[in-house]
UniProtKB/TrEMBL annotation:
Domain Circularly permuted ATP-grasp type: 102-482
Residue ranges occupied by any DUF403 domain in the UniProt entry: 530-831
PANTHER family: BLR2978 PROTEIN, BLR5612 PROTEIN
Protein name per the record: DUF403 domain-containing protein
InterPro entries to which the protein is assigned, alphabetical: ATP-dep_Glu-Cys_Ligase-2, CP_ATPgrasp_2, DUF403
Gene3D superfamilies attached to this UniProt entry: 3.30.1490.270, 3.40.50.11290
Region (Disordered): 26-46
One protein family per Pfam: CP_ATPgrasp_2
Organism listed in the record: Methylobacterium bullatum
Length: 847
C-alpha cells in the first residue's frame, strides 16, 4: 500500500470511528447496524452487520465538507423540484424529509426476503379471490363468517365478480421490521391502494444524484425493471392491444399527490380525477380537449368505497358512476380491485397461519406478530388475562389516517385500563390484540459534540410486489420510514418522521437500465390526449403568470418613472396624474389595500402582499397552485423557476425595504418570469398542453394591454403617460429606433395595440390566439367555426383594419370586455366538468 493510500485509509477509519463510537442499540431490540454491544473498532474489519461496512467505508473516504455539501445538494434538489407531502387533515405542503443515509441490505438477504413477499402476495390473492368467489374458507370453518360479513371493507356488490385478467391485486405491499429473534416479519399488509412506490423512486433519484459514485461503487440494484414489469401487469386483462392507463387520484389535496404525479410522469399514465371521467356505453372514458377517449385500465389511489357512487358510497365525489358495471362486463381493468382492502383487516392476522396451511399446505416464511381476534371467546379470554403484555388495535375503523393503525401498547392499556376493559366487554369483535414487540432500529444521522454521529432509530420498511405477466416481482428496494426520536413509531409520514432510500447491494456490477421496453416499439408522433382538467390548469397557469408580470411592471413603472418627488408633492408636479393612475390601477386590481400609501410601502404591498388577492405574490402562488395539479406535465426546471419566484416575492412583512431595493427585487422577479416563458417556448412540446399555456398568457396580455392603454394612451395622455405605456409593454427600445422625434399618442397606440411585429402588442396576441385555436381540435360536425373561433376571428379582423386614432377609451374598454368574453368561451368549450358540463355534438375519436 502506498503512503497516500495508507493516509486515505487512516482518514476513512478515523471518520467512521467518530461516527460510530457511541452507537449502542437499545437492549433487546434488533438493530440493522450492530449487535447489542455496538460496533467494535474498524468497520472495514467486519464487526458491523450486513452491507453497512461497504457503505461506511466508502462514505468515510469523503471529507466532512464534501459530505455536508452533498447532503445540502440533496435538500436543494428536493426544494427545487417540489417533492413534498401533506399530513392528513393539513392543507399545507411539507418538504419531503429524506434521511441522508439509505437502508442497505445485502443481495443474498434480499433474495430470501423477496421469496417470502412473493409467497405472501400469492396467499393474499388466493384469500381475496375466495372471499368474493366460492367462499370456501368460511364454509369450511377456516375463517369466521363475521370477519368477512362484518368488515367495512367487504363490498357486497363485488361478490361473484371475476376481475378482468383474473387478478384482484396488481400491487401488494407489506410493512416489515425485525422481530425479537432478528428475523424479518410482516407488521401490516397493504392491499387497499398501497402508497410509497413513487416516493421510493423519488428517494432513489435524489440520493443517487447526491452520491452517484457511491451508488455505482456499491452495485445498487436498479428500480426501473420493476416499474416496467408493474406497468405491463396493470394492463393484464385489457381488451385492446394498445391500452390506455389512468391513475385515479383524489386531487392535489391528497397527502400523496406529489407521489402520484411522479408515478404518472415516470410510467406514462394519465393522471385523472373523478370529474375527468365519464361512462359511455358501458366503457370508461376521460374527458379531453379532443372529446372522450377510452380508458382501458385504472390504477386507483382512492379507497374502494369512493370508486363508484352508484353502487358504493353515494356521497362520493372522487369516483365515477358505473365503474363496477364495467368491471362485470370486463371492459375495464382496475388495480387494485375494489374490495381488496378487506385484506388489511387486523383480525385476519389471527387466522393467517391457518389460512396459509389451507391454501399453501405449509407455513408462511414471513410471519406476522402473533394475534388474537377478540370476537373469538377463547381469544378474548386470553387477551383479558394478558392485557399488560399485548398491543391492542381496532380491527377496522372509518377514521382515516392514524385511526386505522392506532395501537395501544401495554403502557397505554395500563393507563386506560377501565376504558379498554369496557370496550372489550361492549364490542370485543372490534379489536385485535398482538404480541408486543418494539420496532427494530437502523442508523440515523444526528449532530453530536464532535460533529455528526450515527444513532439507532426505529424504522418501518415497506416492500412492494407487482403482479406481472411473468408472476409476482418484488421491487429491489422500498419505502422506508425512520423516526428522528427513539420513542416514536414511524407508521406514517408526519412531523418527526423521515424517509430513507433502500439500497439492495448486488455481488457484482449492475447493468444500467431505464424504463424502456425491451422490445422494439413502433415509432409514433402522437402527442397524447390532454384531459380537460389539465388543460384548464395549464390555461390558468399561463394567465396567473402574466398577471404577476403585469403587476410587477406597474410597480417598476411607479418606482422608476415617477419617483419619490411625485408622492412628496402630489399636486405640484407634472407627472402626478400618471402616478395616481398607476396607483388607481393597482388598487382596482386588488394589488394594494389603499392607493394613498407611501411609495415604498405601496410597492412592497403590490409585490409581496399576502392579504391582497391581486399582488404579484398572490398571483405567483395561484400559478403554483395550478402547477401543483400539473406535476406530471411540468419539468423540474419550470418548478424550480416557480419556487425561485415565490421565494423572491415572499418577503417578511415586518421588513421594510427601500425603494431602490424594491426596484431591484421587481426586476429580478421579471427575470424569473422570463425564465418561465422561455422554458415554455423552448422546452414544451408543441402539443395541446403548450397551446393552452400560451393561450392563457396571450389572452391575459391582451386584456392587460387594453387596460393599460385605456389609462395611459388616451386622448389626453401626457408624455409621461405615454412613456409609462411603452415601459409597461417593454417597447421603449423598439419605439426609439422607429421614431426619432419623441413620443406621440397615435404612434404609441399603433405600436402597443396594432403593430403585428411587436410581440407585446394586442394585434400580435390575437394573431397568436388564432393560430393556437386553429391547431386545437374541433368537435363540430357541420364544418362551421365554433363560437370561440368566430369571436377570435372577429377580433383579428378588427385589429387588422383598425387605425390608432380610433382606439379611444371607450373602444379599448369594449375590446377588453371582448377578450374576457373570448376567455370565457374557451373555458366553456375546452374545460367541461361536473354533471351539467357541455357535451360535444359528436364524440369523435373514442379510441
Amino acid at each position: 500500500m502506498t503512503q497516500m493510500a495508507e493516509a486515505q485509509a487512516g482518514g476513512t477509519a478515523s471518520h467512521v470511528a467518530r461516527w460510530t463510537s457511541d452507537y449502542r442499540p437499545r437492549p433487546g431490540i434488533p438493530d440493522e447496524f450492530a449487535g447489542p454491544d455496538g460496533p467494535r473498532e474498524g468497520v472495514s474489519e467486519g464487526p458491523c452487520k450486513g452491507a453497512w461496512p461497504r457503505l461506511l467505508d466508502r462514505l468515510g473516504a469523503l471529507s466532512g465538507a464534501e459530505i455536508t455539501a452533498r447532503f445540502a445538494s440533496a435538500e436543494r434538489h428536493i426544494r427545487d423540484t417540489g417533492i413534498s407531502y401533506r399530513i392528513y387533515g393539513d392543507q399545507r405542503e411539507h418538504a419531503w424529509p429524506l434521511s441522508s443515509l439509505p437502508l442497505v441490505i445485502e443481495g443474498a438477504e434480499w433474495r430470501a426476503l423477496s421469496a417470502g413477499i412473493v409467497q405472501r402476495a400469492g396467499l393474499m390473492e388466493s384469500i381475496v379471490s375466495d372471499i368474493y368467489g366460492p367462499g370456501r374458507m368460511v364454509s369450511e370453518g377456516v375463517l369466521p363468517a363475521a370477519l368477512v360479513a362484518g368488515a367495512p371493507e367487504f363490498l357486497r356488490p363485488l361478490s361473484g365478480v371475476t376481475p378482468p385478467g383474473g387478478r384482484w391485486l396488481k400491487l401488494y405491499a407489506a410493512d416489515i421490521g425485525r422481530g425479537p429473534d432478528g428475523r424479518w416479519r410482516v407488521l401490516a399488509d397493504r392491499t387497499q391502494a398501497p402508497s410509497g412506490p413513487g416516493y421510493a423512486l423519488e428517494n432513489r433519484m435524489v440520493l443517487t444524484r447526491a452520491f452517484p459514485d457511491l451508488y455505482a461503487d456499491l452495485h445498487v440494484e436498479r428500480l426501473a425493471p420493476f416499474f416496467q414489469a408493474f406497468r405491463d401487469g396493470l394492463v393484464m386483462g385489457a381488451q385492446r392491444s394498445d391500452p390506455r392507463i389512468g391513475l385515479l387520484t383524489s386531487g392535489p389535496l391528497s397527502s400523496t399527490y406529489v407521489e402520484q404525479a411522479a408515478l404518472a410522469r415516470y410510467l406514462g399514465l394519465l393522471l385523472v380525477e373523478g370529474d375527468d371521467l365519464v361512462m359511455q356505453d358501458g366503457v370508461l372514458h376521460v374527458r379531453t380537449v379532443s372529446g372522450l377517449k377510452r380508458i382501458d385500465a385504472l390504477w386507483r389511489r382512492i379507497d374502494s368505497d369512493y370508486l363508484d357512487p352508484l353502487e358504493l358510497n353515494p356521497a362520493s365525489r372522487l369516483g365515477v358512476s358505473g365503474v363496477l358495471e364495467a368491471l362485470r362486463d370486463g371492459s375495464l381493468v382496475v388495480g387494485n380491485m375494489p374490495g381488496s382492502g378487506i385484506l388489511e383487516s387486523g383480525a385476519l392476522g389471527a387466522y393467517l397461519p391457518r389460512i396459509a396451511r389451507y391454501f399453501l399446505g405449509t407455513d408462511l416464511s414471513l410471519q406476522g406478530p402473533k394475534s388474537w381476534w377478540c370476537g373469538d371467546p377463547e381469544s378474548l379470554a386470553h387477551v383479558r388475562d394478558n392485557l399488560e403484555r399485548l398491543d391492542l388495535r381496532p380491527v377496522a375503523t372509518p377514521t382515516k389516517g392514524m385511526g386505522r393503525d392506532a395501537i395501544l401498547g401495554p403502557h397505554a392499556i395500563v393507563a386506560e385500563r377501565e376504558r379498554v376493559v369496557a370496550a372489550l366487554r361492549d364490542r370485543p369483535f372490534d379489536y385485535v390484540a398482538q404480541e408486543h414487540a418494539p420496532l427494530s432500529t437502523m442508523p440515523g444521522w444526528e449532530p453530536g459534540p464532535d460533529g455528526m454521529r450515527l444513532v439507532p432509530r426505529p424504522f418501518v420498511l415497506r416492500v412492494f410486489a407487482a403482479a406481472t405477466p411473468d408472476g409476482w416481482r418484488v421491487m429491489p428496494g422500498g419505502f422506508c420510514r425512520i423516526s428522528e426520536r427513539p420513542d416514536v413509531n414511524p407508521i406514517e409520514m408526519r412531523a418527526g418522521i423521515k424517509s430513507a432510500d433502500v439500497w439492495v447491494l448486488s455481488d457484482g456490477p449492475v447493468e444500467p437500465v431505464s424504463l424502456m421496453h425491451p422490445g422494439a416499439p413502433r415509432v409514433r408522433r402522437i402527442a397524447g390526449h390532454l384531459p380537460s382538467r389539465a388543460a384548464d390548469n395549464l390555461f390558468w397557469f399561463g394567465r396567473y403568470v402574466e398577471r404577476a408580470e403585469a403587476v410587477i411592471r406597474l410597480v417598476i413603472a411607479h418606482l422608476g418613472s415617477v419617483g419619490n418627488a411625485v408622492i412628496a408633492d402630489m399636486a405640484g408636479t407634472e407627472s402626478a396624474p400618471t402616478a395616481l393612475r398607476i396607483r388607481a390601477l393597482l388598487d382596482e386590481w386588488g394589488a394594494i389595500e389603499a392607493p394613498d400609501l407611501p411609495t415604498a410601502k405601496l410597492a412592497q404591498e403590490a409585490l409581496s402582499g399576502r392579504a391582497t388577492y391581486g399582488s404579484a405574490l398572490s398571483h405567483s402562488l395561484s400559478a403554483r397552485h395550478n402547477a401543483a395539479s400539473l406535476r406530471e406535465r411540468l419539468s423540474s426546471e419550470a418548478w424550480r423557476a416557480l419556487a425561485d419566484l415565490k421565494d423572491l416575492l415572499d418577503l417578511d412583512e415586518a421588513r421594510d425595504l427601500a425603494e431602490a431595493e424594491l426596484l431591484g427585487l421587481a426586476e429580478r422577479a421579471l427575470g424569473h418570469i422570463a425564465a418561465l416563458a422561455g422554458l415554455a417556448q423552448e422546452n414544451m412540446n408543441r402539443t395541446a398542453g403548450w397551446h393552452f399555456v400560451d393561450l392563457g398568457r396571450r389572452i391575459e396580455r391582451a386584456i392587460n394591454t387594453c387596460s393599460f392603454a385605456a389609462r395611459f394612451a388616451g386622448d389626453e395622455a401626457t408624455a409621461e403617460d405615454l412613456g409609462v405605456m411603452l415601459s409597461l409593454c417593454d417597447s421603449h427600445v423598439s419605439f426609439g429606433a422607429r421614431y426619432m422625434q419623441g413620443v406621440a399618442i397615435d404612434p404609441v397606440r399603433d405600436m402597443v395595440l396594432l403593430d403585428p411585429f411587436n410581440p407585446r402588442s394586442v394585434a400580435f396576441q390575437i394573431e397568436a390566439i388564432c393560430r393556437h385555436l386553429a391547431d386545437l381540435p374541433a368537435l363540430r360536425v357541420d364544418g362551421l367555426p365554433e363560437s370561440h373561433r368566430r369571436l377570435a376571428q372577429k377580433l383579428a379582423a378588427e385589429f387588422t383594419t383598425a387605425e390608432a386614432s380610433e382606439l379611444d377609451g371607450a373602444a379599448l374598454a369594449r375590446l377588453e370586455n371582448t377578450f374576457e368574453g373570448l376567455a370565457d368561451a374557451i373555458v366553456t368549450r375546452y374545460f367541461p366538468n361536473g354533471p351539467h358540463a357541455m357535451r360535444p355534438e359528436k364524440l369523435v375519436g373514442l379510441a
